[in-house]
């Protein structure tokens, strides 16, 4: 019965409600990461046995011949050629600097010129200074972002009190999926999101679009991008408005909070003494890495074959007794995270490509 309900688009059946704290947890001092263990001093390697002088002399002569031969093959560059190359490099530098200055004028300086009062001049003002002053006056419109210490405190409190907590993160893949026929046409999404099949979504997928929107409404905490690239923060608010979501009712942190917490030593502190469930295509590798660090991993659900695999993954994960689930499954991580928190009353964490890094694997370009 659970699987069939998950297969329905979120419009027909809203995502499970996840508990949200009534007020942000009190920020505590950032725990200090453990000091790295000093490496043991390595002993000297055993010396190789001496070889006969005859063989050694022959090797040296052969080596000299190779070096002489390779030197002959090295092309000789005359001084005029070097000077000509230097001049070409300097010309490219001048062209770059000229283009940069023109772009700066046509961008920030031109915009500043349009907004300066016509009846006065402001000596020595720069576009950077004007933007800084303008942003200062706009802070009242700002939305607070939870810092790493607060996120840690909230996750730890939810674990201690056995409350549900869904921490999801939004990137360009999720936002482009949400934008289908709401903000962007399907053709625009296909063109700008050629990586989406890798992330688990094939366009069009309006059911995924609608389910993601429902998940955002009920998630406990949402990581959002800080980049001003058109497909990140600008698209975030455009898609929220298009789906009728009041962002003032949501709770935000940065979308890279998972990395920040790991770098500050907060994740391993959070995982200590907890039963971990790992979900995703690198679950087995991450499990081994965490076991080596003394963590308790009770299970690994793998693979996750795209967004369509969400019902099966959720059903399999529900069979485990765990405290916190780490989900690294592309765009599918959002419904998996929200469903497990809402249906199982668990703490769930959209872990992303941090799983690759902690497992010691090469990270894909998109993170």
Automatic annotation (TrEMBL):
Residues forming the GT-D fold-like domain are: 146-358
Map out region (Disordered) in residue numbers: 1-96
- Bias-annotated ranges (Basic residues): 46-74
Q: Name one Pfam family in it.
A: GT-D-like
Matches recorded under InterPro entries: GT-D-like, GT-D-like_firm
Taxonomically, the superkingdom here is Bacteria
Q: What name does the UniProt record give this protein? A: GT-D fold-like domain-containing protein
**Organism listed in the record:** Cohnella phaseoli
Its taxonomic placement starts with: Bacteria, Bacillati, Bacillota, Bacilli, Bacillales
């Amino acid at each position: 019965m659970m699987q069939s309900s998950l297969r329905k688009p979120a419009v027909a059946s809203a995502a499970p409600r996840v508990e949200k704290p009534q007020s942000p947890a009190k920020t505590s001092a950032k725990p200090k990461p453990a000091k790295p263990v000093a490496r043991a001093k390595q002993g000297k390697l055993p010396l190789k046995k001496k070889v006969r002088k005859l063989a050694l002399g022959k090797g040296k002569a052969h080596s000299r011949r190779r070096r002489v031969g390779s030197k002959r093959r090295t092309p000789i560059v005359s001084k005029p050629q070097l000077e000509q190359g230097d001049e070409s490099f300097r010309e490219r530098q001048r062209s770059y600097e000229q283009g940069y200055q023109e772009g700066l004028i046509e961008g920030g300086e031109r915009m500043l010129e349009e907004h300066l009062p016509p009846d006065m001049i402001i000596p020595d003002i720069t576009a950077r200074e004007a933007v800084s002053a303008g942003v200062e006056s706009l802070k009242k419109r700002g939305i607070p972002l939870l810092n790493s210490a607060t996120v840690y405190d909230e996750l730890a409190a939810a674990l201690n009190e056995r409350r549900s907590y869904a921490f999801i993160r939004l990137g360009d893949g999720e936002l482009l999926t949400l934008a289908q026929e709401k903000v962007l046409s399907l053709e625009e999404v296909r063109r700008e999101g050629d990586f989406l099949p890798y992330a688990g979504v094939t366009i069009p997928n309006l059911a995924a679009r609608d389910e993601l929107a429902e998940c955002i409404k009920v998630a406990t905490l949402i990581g959002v991008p800080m980049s001003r690239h058109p497909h990140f923060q600008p698209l975030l608010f455009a898609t929220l408005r298009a789906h009728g979501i009041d962002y003032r009712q949501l709770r935000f942190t940065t979308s890279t909070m998972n990395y920040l917490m790991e770098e500050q030593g907060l994740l391993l502190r959070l995982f200590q003494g907890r039963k971990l469930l790992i979900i995703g295509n690198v679950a087995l590798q991450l499990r081994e890495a965490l076991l080596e660090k003394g963590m308790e991993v009770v299970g690994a659900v793998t693979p996750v074959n795209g967004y369509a695999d969400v019902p099966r993954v959720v059903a399999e994960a529900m069979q485990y007794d765990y405290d916190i689930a780490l989900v690294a499954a592309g765009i599918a991580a959002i419904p998996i995270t929200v469903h497990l928190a809402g249906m199982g009353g668990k703490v769930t964490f959209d872990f992303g490509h941090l799983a690759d890094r902690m497992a010691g694997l090469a990270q894909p370009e998109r993170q």
